[in-house]
């Protein structure tokens, strides 16, 4: 699966309207791909809406990217957002495709979006080490997706679902205490460029 992670910076008080516009844009008759999540940031860089869309192949992702970029109002929010960034990703090949909560059973409502820089030559090692470690880690909390960036700096993004912020802290502490996380040898392939954002689903988000 291929994914697009788009981030819009919004003025105060516009999140509800922006979310409705995102849903309309992503489900329009000429839209390609599938709207999977529409979050609003709660911890990290604030006043941002993060949109996750999924695609069966890279050609479809590129076609939808072109539709968005050529639109007079990308995501229906051209008159609202202050800035827009779009980044392309490919899911780790062994991971199940991201599905809405109604199908997958994965629910937050607290989602952590983490991005790590990868050292040159470290992509395949990271994919392999995560494949070994994620099953045990998912017994504590579900991993929504892990995906390698196809543009910009060499990096990967992983998204996790938790019922509360406190549960997120406990899950991470338990995983470290049990020795199942981080993946053994994994940090050696990463740079110190790391970011983390906590976001909550908007009303239109298929991942709730």
Secondary-structure blueprint:
Layout: E1 2-9, H1 15-26, E2 34-43, E3 48-55, H2 58-70, E4 83-91, H3 101-104, E5 110-118, H4 123-137, E6 143-149, E7 155-162, H5 165-177, E8 190-201
Antiparallel strand pairs: 1-3, 1-4, 2-3, 2-8, 4-6, 5-7, 5-8, 6-7
Q: Top keywords for this entry?
A:
single chain; 208 residues; alpha+beta; Alpha-Beta Plaits; 2 domains; eight-stranded antiparallel barrel; 5 helices; 8 strands; 27% helix; globular
Could you please describe the fold and organization of this structure?
The chain is α+β, with helices and mostly antiparallel strands. The protein folds into two domains: 1-91, Alpha-Beta Plaits (2-Layer Sandwich); 106-201, Alpha-Beta Plaits (2-Layer Sandwich), CATH 3.30.70. It has five helices and eight strands, in the order βαββαβαβαββαβ. It has helices spanning 15-26, 58-70, 101-104, 123-137, 165-177; strands at 2-9, 34-43, 48-55, 83-91, 110-118, 143-149, 155-162, 190-201. It has an eight-stranded antiparallel β-barrel with strand order 1-3-2-8-5-7-6-4, surrounded by four helices. A hairpin with a 4-residue loop joins strand 2 (34-43) and strand 3. The mean pLDDT is 97.
């Amino acid at each position: 699966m291929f994914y697009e992670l788009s981030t819009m910076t919004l003025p105060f008080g516009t999140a509800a309207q922006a979310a409705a516009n995102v849903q309309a844009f992503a489900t329009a008759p000429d839209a390609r791909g599938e709207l999977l999540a529409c979050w609003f940031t709660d911890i990290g860089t604030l006043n941002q809406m993060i949109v996750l869309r999924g695609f069966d192949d890279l050609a479809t992702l590129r076609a939808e990217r072109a539709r968005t970029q050529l639109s007079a109002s990308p995501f229906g929010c051209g008159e609202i957002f202050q800035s827009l960034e779009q980044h392309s990703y490919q899911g780790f090949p062994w991971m199940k495709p991201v599905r809405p909560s109604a199908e997958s059973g994965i629910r937050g409502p607290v989602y952590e979006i983490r991005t790590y820089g990868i050292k040159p030559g470290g992509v395949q090692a990271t994919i392999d080490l995560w494949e070994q470690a994620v099953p045990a880690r998912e017994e504590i909390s579900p991993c929504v997706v892990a995906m390698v960036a196809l543009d910009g700096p060499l990096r990967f993004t992983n998204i996790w679902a938790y019922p509360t912020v406190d549960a997120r802290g406990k899950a991470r502490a338990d995983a470290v205490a049990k020795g199942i996380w981080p993946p053994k040898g994994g940090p050696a392939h990463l740079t110190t460029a790391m970011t983390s954002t906590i976001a909550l689903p908007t009303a239109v988000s298929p991942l709730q």
